[in-house]
Amino acid sequence: MSRYWWLLLGGLAACRPDPRVRRVGAKHAVDTTLATMLHERRERPRDRALTTPRVITQPTVVVFWLHTTDTLSRDSAEAASRDLDYYTEQVASNLRHNDIALVPTNVDTVYVEQPSHERRAIVLSGLDYPYGYLLIDPGTPERILTGIYDDDQLLDELNAYFDLSDESDSTRTIPRVVT
Fold this sequence. Notes:
Blueprint: H1 2-14, H2 34-41, H3 48-51, E1 55-56, E2 60-65, H4 74-97, E3 101-105, E4 109-113, E5 119-123, E6 131-136, E7 143-146, H5 151-162
Parallel strand pairs: 1-4, 2-3
Antiparallel strand pairs: 2-6, 4-5, 6-7
């Protein structure tokens, strides 16, 4: 009889799920979009590209999703993530057309390399919302947009900051600082 018990225990152990396999279901849908990637990456801190502070050397829009979003309810975080992703996708082609990089990050400090090769830190923690956009053109003051901006508002902010042209054959000019 003890032989049968060992077989039964061995069979039960073989039916146990493998802990190394990441299950994908309705709760953990696979999505490769930008904001969703930011939201999911906070659960997987091994992704060094999102968790390493960025050094910006060219005109860039940094989409940030900080770890303090853990304080949001799950529904609020998912809604914000979807909206951030949707509106970012709406302006992404315009950014590519104007040679402006689009970079995601989960860290609260971004470094900007100035034309003199000095680095300046921009700290994103402690803002109104722990997600949004950081507009950077090295050599000029940055612009931080916290929260969700719809595509028209975001495009207006991008046009104003980067002095984007609506003409397809024109070149991008350096924005002027107004005092």
